Amino acid sequence: MSIFTRRAKEEAVKGENRLPPGQSLTERFPVLHYGPTVVYPNLDNWDLRVFGLVEEPVIWNWEEFSRLPRTKITMDIHCVTKWSKFDTTWEGVSMKTLIDEGFIKPKAEAKFVVQHCEHDYTTNTTLDFLLLDTVLMATHFEGEPLTPEHGYPLRFICGSKADRSEVEAKYIWKGGKWLRGLEFRADDKLGFWEVNGYHNNADPWTEERFSRGW
Ligand SMILES: Nc1nc2c(c(=O)[nH]1)N[C@H]1C(S)=C(S)[C@@H](COP(=O)(O)O)O[C@H]1N2
Ligand SMILES: [Mo]
Fold first, then answer.
1. Which of 68, 94, 106, 189 has the greatest number of beta carbons closer than 10 A?
2. Ligand number nearest to the C-alpha of 26
3. Spacing, Cα 155 to ligand 2 middle (Å)
4. Which residues, 6 or more positions from 163, have their beta carbon under 8 angstroms from its beta carbon?
5. How far is the CA of 42 from the centre of ligand 1 (A)?
6. Distance of alpha carbon 133 from alpha carbon 109, whole angstroms
7. In this predicted model, what pLDDT tens digit does every residue of 24-59 receive, in sequence order?
8. Are 143 and 91 in contact (CB under 8 A)?
9. Is the pTM of this model over 0.85?
10. Domain residue ranges of the chain, discontinuous segments joined by +
11. CATH class of 3-28+44-206
12. Pocket, ligand 1, Cβ cutoff 6 A
Protein backbone atom coordinates (compact mmCIF):
# COMPACT_ATOMS: atom_id res chain seq x y z
CA MET A 1 0.00 0.00 0.00
CA SER A 2 1.27 3.43 -0.91
CA ILE A 3 1.95 6.03 1.74
CA PHE A 4 1.05 8.80 -0.71
CA THR A 5 -2.45 10.06 -1.32
CA ARG A 6 -3.69 10.43 -4.89
CA ARG A 7 -3.30 14.17 -4.59
CA ALA A 8 0.29 13.94 -3.39
CA LYS A 9 1.15 11.62 -6.24
CA GLU A 10 -0.43 14.06 -8.65
CA GLU A 11 1.67 16.90 -7.27
CA ALA A 12 4.76 14.73 -7.62
CA VAL A 13 4.21 13.90 -11.31
CA LYS A 14 3.27 17.51 -11.96
CA GLY A 15 6.58 18.58 -10.46
CA GLU A 16 8.30 16.18 -12.83
CA ASN A 17 6.47 17.72 -15.80
CA ARG A 18 4.62 14.45 -16.45
CA LEU A 19 1.04 15.69 -16.02
CA PRO A 20 -0.35 17.19 -19.24
CA PRO A 21 -2.47 20.36 -18.93
CA GLY A 22 -6.07 19.77 -17.86
CA GLN A 23 -5.38 16.18 -16.71
CA SER A 24 -5.59 14.62 -13.27
CA LEU A 25 -3.97 11.48 -11.92
CA THR A 26 -6.08 8.39 -11.49
CA GLU A 27 -5.13 5.19 -9.73
CA ARG A 28 -8.06 3.36 -11.26
CA PHE A 29 -8.28 2.32 -14.89
CA PRO A 30 -11.49 3.78 -16.33
CA VAL A 31 -13.09 1.99 -19.27
CA LEU A 32 -14.22 4.01 -22.28
CA HIS A 33 -15.49 2.94 -25.63
CA TYR A 34 -18.36 3.28 -28.02
CA GLY A 35 -20.71 0.30 -28.23
CA PRO A 36 -20.59 -3.02 -26.40
CA THR A 37 -17.55 -4.64 -24.81
CA VAL A 38 -16.27 -7.36 -27.09
CA VAL A 39 -15.96 -10.76 -25.43
CA TYR A 40 -14.22 -13.63 -27.18
CA PRO A 41 -15.23 -17.02 -25.77
CA ASN A 42 -12.03 -18.34 -27.39
CA LEU A 43 -9.56 -17.15 -30.00
CA ASP A 44 -10.21 -19.88 -32.58
CA ASN A 45 -11.61 -17.42 -35.10
CA TRP A 46 -9.44 -14.46 -34.15
CA ASP A 47 -7.04 -13.09 -36.70
CA LEU A 48 -5.13 -9.91 -37.45
CA ARG A 49 -5.13 -8.78 -41.04
CA VAL A 50 -2.35 -6.57 -42.45
CA PHE A 51 -3.38 -5.05 -45.76
CA GLY A 52 -3.27 -2.02 -48.05
CA LEU A 53 0.12 -0.66 -49.07
CA VAL A 54 2.28 -3.59 -47.98
CA GLU A 55 4.44 -5.80 -50.20
CA GLU A 56 2.73 -8.96 -48.90
CA PRO A 57 -0.61 -8.82 -47.11
CA VAL A 58 -0.63 -11.13 -44.09
CA ILE A 59 -3.23 -12.69 -41.84
CA TRP A 60 -2.03 -14.03 -38.50
CA ASN A 61 -4.16 -16.29 -36.37
CA TRP A 62 -3.69 -16.10 -32.60
CA GLU A 63 -1.13 -18.87 -32.48
CA GLU A 64 0.95 -17.21 -35.21
CA PHE A 65 0.60 -13.78 -33.63
CA SER A 66 1.75 -15.20 -30.30
CA ARG A 67 5.02 -16.32 -31.86
CA LEU A 68 6.02 -12.81 -33.00
CA PRO A 69 8.87 -11.09 -31.11
CA ARG A 70 7.69 -9.42 -27.94
CA THR A 71 8.39 -6.09 -26.26
CA LYS A 72 7.68 -4.67 -22.80
CA ILE A 73 7.33 -0.94 -22.08
CA THR A 74 6.51 1.29 -19.13
CA MET A 75 4.89 4.64 -19.82
CA ASP A 76 2.33 7.21 -18.73
CA ILE A 77 -1.04 7.20 -20.52
CA HIS A 78 -3.43 10.08 -21.05
CA CYS A 79 -7.14 9.96 -21.85
CA VAL A 80 -9.00 12.82 -23.50
CA THR A 81 -11.62 12.51 -20.73
CA LYS A 82 -8.98 14.11 -18.47
CA TRP A 83 -7.39 11.28 -16.56
CA SER A 84 -3.78 10.17 -16.77
CA LYS A 85 -2.25 7.02 -15.39
CA PHE A 86 1.45 6.81 -14.57
CA ASP A 87 4.11 4.10 -14.83
CA THR A 88 1.86 1.60 -16.57
CA THR A 89 3.54 -1.51 -17.95
CA TRP A 90 2.48 -3.11 -21.21
CA GLU A 91 3.69 -6.13 -23.09
CA GLY A 92 3.04 -7.09 -26.67
CA VAL A 93 4.34 -6.58 -30.17
CA SER A 94 6.00 -3.47 -31.53
CA MET A 95 5.31 -2.28 -35.06
CA LYS A 96 8.92 -1.14 -35.37
CA THR A 97 10.19 -4.63 -34.57
CA LEU A 98 7.76 -6.21 -37.03
CA ILE A 99 8.96 -3.89 -39.78
CA ASP A 100 12.68 -4.06 -38.84
CA GLU A 101 12.52 -7.85 -38.85
CA GLY A 102 10.56 -8.08 -42.09
CA PHE A 103 7.29 -9.45 -40.70
CA ILE A 104 5.53 -6.46 -42.24
CA LYS A 105 6.91 -4.80 -45.37
CA PRO A 106 5.22 -1.46 -45.97
CA LYS A 107 5.48 -0.07 -49.48
CA ALA A 108 7.45 3.17 -49.82
CA GLU A 109 4.21 5.14 -50.35
CA ALA A 110 2.70 3.93 -47.06
CA LYS A 111 2.63 6.92 -44.70
CA PHE A 112 -0.52 6.34 -42.62
CA VAL A 113 -2.14 3.40 -40.86
CA VAL A 114 -5.78 2.84 -39.96
CA GLN A 115 -6.37 0.51 -37.01
CA HIS A 116 -9.47 -1.59 -37.68
CA CYS A 117 -11.22 -2.94 -34.60
CA GLU A 118 -14.31 -5.00 -33.83
CA HIS A 119 -17.65 -3.30 -34.51
CA ASP A 120 -16.03 -1.11 -37.17
CA TYR A 121 -14.18 1.11 -34.71
CA THR A 122 -11.25 2.71 -36.48
CA THR A 123 -8.55 5.18 -35.55
CA ASN A 124 -5.81 6.68 -37.67
CA THR A 125 -2.22 7.82 -37.22
CA THR A 126 0.90 8.24 -39.27
CA LEU A 127 3.02 5.13 -39.72
CA ASP A 128 5.91 7.04 -38.12
CA PHE A 129 3.87 7.41 -34.93
CA LEU A 130 3.30 3.66 -34.67
CA LEU A 131 7.06 3.10 -34.91
CA LEU A 132 7.77 4.97 -31.67
CA ASP A 133 8.93 3.07 -28.59
CA THR A 134 5.96 4.57 -26.70
CA VAL A 135 3.45 2.71 -28.89
CA LEU A 136 2.65 -0.98 -28.66
CA MET A 137 0.18 -3.59 -29.86
CA ALA A 138 -0.45 -4.84 -26.35
CA THR A 139 -1.64 -8.23 -25.17
CA HIS A 140 -0.76 -7.71 -21.48
CA PHE A 141 -1.20 -4.94 -18.91
CA GLU A 142 0.76 -5.14 -15.64
CA GLY A 143 1.79 -8.71 -16.42
CA GLU A 144 -1.73 -10.03 -17.01
CA PRO A 145 -3.62 -10.59 -20.26
CA LEU A 146 -5.84 -7.60 -21.08
CA THR A 147 -9.32 -7.77 -19.62
CA PRO A 148 -12.22 -7.77 -22.11
CA GLU A 149 -13.10 -4.13 -21.26
CA HIS A 150 -9.57 -2.99 -22.01
CA GLY A 151 -9.38 -4.76 -25.35
CA TYR A 152 -8.55 -8.45 -24.92
CA PRO A 153 -6.80 -10.01 -26.71
CA LEU A 154 -5.08 -7.15 -28.54
CA ARG A 155 -5.11 -3.37 -28.51
CA PHE A 156 -2.85 -0.52 -29.44
CA ILE A 157 -1.71 1.63 -26.55
CA CYS A 158 0.38 4.81 -26.64
CA GLY A 159 1.80 7.13 -24.03
CA SER A 160 4.64 9.30 -22.84
CA LYS A 161 7.86 8.58 -20.99
CA ALA A 162 8.62 9.42 -17.39
CA ASP A 163 11.59 11.51 -18.51
CA ARG A 164 9.47 13.13 -21.26
CA SER A 165 11.88 12.03 -23.96
CA GLU A 166 9.08 10.66 -26.15
CA VAL A 167 9.10 11.91 -29.72
CA GLU A 168 5.35 12.42 -29.86
CA ALA A 169 2.46 11.56 -27.53
CA LYS A 170 -1.24 11.06 -28.15
CA TYR A 171 -4.38 10.57 -26.10
CA ILE A 172 -5.21 6.89 -25.85
CA TRP A 173 -8.27 6.96 -28.06
CA LYS A 174 -5.57 6.54 -30.76
CA GLY A 175 -5.19 3.03 -29.32
CA GLY A 176 -7.82 0.75 -30.78
CA LYS A 177 -9.11 -2.00 -28.50
CA TRP A 178 -10.07 -5.41 -29.98
CA LEU A 179 -7.71 -4.77 -32.87
CA ARG A 180 -8.27 -6.93 -35.99
CA GLY A 181 -6.68 -5.10 -38.89
CA LEU A 182 -3.91 -2.75 -39.94
CA GLU A 183 -4.48 -0.84 -43.15
CA PHE A 184 -1.42 0.86 -44.64
CA ARG A 185 -2.29 3.92 -46.72
CA ALA A 186 -0.69 6.74 -48.68
CA ASP A 187 -3.27 9.28 -47.46
CA ASP A 188 -4.71 9.90 -44.03
CA LYS A 189 -8.24 8.72 -43.31
CA LEU A 190 -10.08 9.91 -40.21
CA GLY A 191 -11.22 7.22 -37.78
CA PHE A 192 -14.38 6.97 -35.69
CA TRP A 193 -13.75 9.64 -33.03
CA GLU A 194 -11.78 11.78 -35.46
CA VAL A 195 -14.83 11.98 -37.75
CA ASN A 196 -16.94 12.75 -34.68
CA GLY A 197 -15.01 15.86 -33.69
CA TYR A 198 -11.93 14.63 -31.87
CA HIS A 199 -8.68 16.28 -32.93
CA ASN A 200 -6.78 14.31 -35.55
CA ASN A 201 -3.36 14.86 -33.95
CA ALA A 202 -4.43 14.25 -30.31
CA ASP A 203 -1.34 15.60 -28.52
CA PRO A 204 -2.08 15.77 -24.76
CA TRP A 205 0.72 18.30 -24.16
CA THR A 206 -0.98 20.90 -26.34
CA GLU A 207 -4.51 19.72 -25.43
CA GLU A 208 -5.49 18.71 -28.93
CA ARG A 209 -8.80 17.31 -27.70
CA PHE A 210 -11.39 18.45 -30.19
CA SER A 211 -11.52 19.97 -33.63
CA ARG A 212 -14.11 22.04 -35.48
CA GLY A 213 -15.75 24.32 -32.97
CA TRP A 214 -16.04 21.92 -30.03
N1 LIG B 1 -12.41 -0.69 -30.44
C2 LIG B 1 -12.44 0.45 -29.74
N3 LIG B 1 -11.29 0.92 -29.24
C4 LIG B 1 -11.28 2.07 -28.54
C5 LIG B 1 -12.47 2.81 -28.36
C6 LIG B 1 -13.68 2.30 -28.92
O7 LIG B 1 -14.76 2.91 -28.82
N8 LIG B 1 -13.62 1.11 -29.59
N9 LIG B 1 -12.44 3.99 -27.65
C10 LIG B 1 -11.16 4.66 -27.51
C11 LIG B 1 -11.23 5.67 -26.48
S12 LIG B 1 -12.20 7.00 -26.81
C13 LIG B 1 -10.47 5.61 -25.34
S14 LIG B 1 -10.44 6.91 -24.27
C15 LIG B 1 -9.67 4.40 -25.02
C16 LIG B 1 -9.97 3.96 -23.62
O17 LIG B 1 -9.25 2.82 -23.27
P18 LIG B 1 -9.60 2.07 -21.91
O19 LIG B 1 -11.06 1.71 -21.95
O20 LIG B 1 -8.70 0.91 -21.85
O21 LIG B 1 -9.35 3.06 -20.79
O22 LIG B 1 -9.93 3.34 -25.91
C23 LIG B 1 -9.98 3.72 -27.26
N24 LIG B 1 -10.10 2.52 -28.05
MO1 LIG C 1 -12.01 8.51 -25.12
1. 94
2. 1
3. 14
4. none
5. 21
6. 22
7. 999 999 999 999 999 999 999 999 999 999 999 999
8. yes
9. yes
10. 3-28+44-206
11. alpha beta
12. 30-34, 79-80, 117, 121, 150, 172-173, 175-178, 193
